[in-house]
Amino acid sequence: MDCLAQGRKADDILATIPLPGSMQPISGPNRMERDKEREIRDQLSKLGLEHRELDNEIAALEASGAGDQLQISRLKRRKLKLKDQMTTLEDQLLPDIIA
Predict the structure, then answer these.
(1) How far apart are CA 75 and CA 55, in angstroms?
(2) Spatial CB neighbours of 54, under 8 Å, sequence gap ≥ 6
(3) Is 0.70 topped by the overall pTM?
(4) Residue 80 to residue 87: CA distance in whole angstroms
(5) What's the confidence (pLDDT) of residue 16?
(6) DSSP label at residue 65
(7) Are 47 and 78 in contact (CB under 8 A)?
(8) Rounded to an integer, what distance in angstroms lies between the CA atom of residue 70 and that of residue 58?
(9) CA dist 10 to 4, 13, 19, Å?
(10) Roughly how many angstroms between the first and final C-alpha of the chain, as a whole number?
(11) Which of 17, 58, 59, 93 has the most CB atoms in a 10 Å sphere around its CB?
(12) Helix (H, G, I), strand (E, B) or coil at 2
């Protein structure tokens, strides 16, 4: 009796036939890649939180007038370094696209 007559679809039949090694379907990112991506996202989250805290601290010092300019300048430089680190991590998450 014919497989199609038994109610099996052609796709189901083809799925049971093993493909040669070079023709295996391409799967998504493997576990190691997913774990690395998760680590990067966690690190980005921590850096983002620290960046916001610095922003609030700088704003509070500027509003109160209590902070000296040297201290505010150092906090701003630190904030910029955090932003650079965040950009580097974000670049690792996005694939390179050749325009």
Answers:
(1) 9
(2) 75, 78, 79, 82
(3) no
(4) 10
(5) 61
(6) S
(7) no
(8) 12
(9) 7, 5, 16
(10) 54
(11) 58
(12) coil
Cβ-based neighbour number of residue 82 at 10 Å: 20
Amino acid at 73: S
Percentage of the chain surpassing pLDDT 90?
52
CA 3 vs CA 14, 17, 37: distances in Å: 11, 14, 44
Q: What percent of the chain has pLDDT over 70?
A: 69
Reading the block at residue 87, the tokens are 């950009």
Neighbours of 62 (CB within 10 A): 13
pLDDT digits (tens, 9 = 90+) for 23-66: 555 555 688 888 999 999 999 999 999 999 999 999 999 999 87
State the Cα–Cα distance between residues 4 and 69, nearest whole angstrom: 80
Tracing tokens 């690792």 back to the chain, one arrives at 92
